[in-house]
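Deliverable D4.2, example record:
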Amino acid sequence: MYNVVNFVDQSDQEVEAKEFYTDLIRGQLSNNELGVLFYLGLSDRGAKFKDLVEKYALFEDMPSDVLIDEEHRKIYAPSAYGESD
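Output generated by the structure prediction step:
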């Protein structure tokens, strides 16, 4: 997933197009897949992915019940959920 989102991020497209494509990607993910990606972004291997999650609000529609603990939601910046800082 990182490679796909990174490909969009690195493209020469305008910001609006990048947001459109990352919205399409997000829409294809199940709640459980979002939960797995949430914790992947916290690992050493997922640090770059965490930055992209926060940039493109990839967890905007993720319900808190997929998290082990709802307090974990605070680990990511509000932008990861489509919220202002």
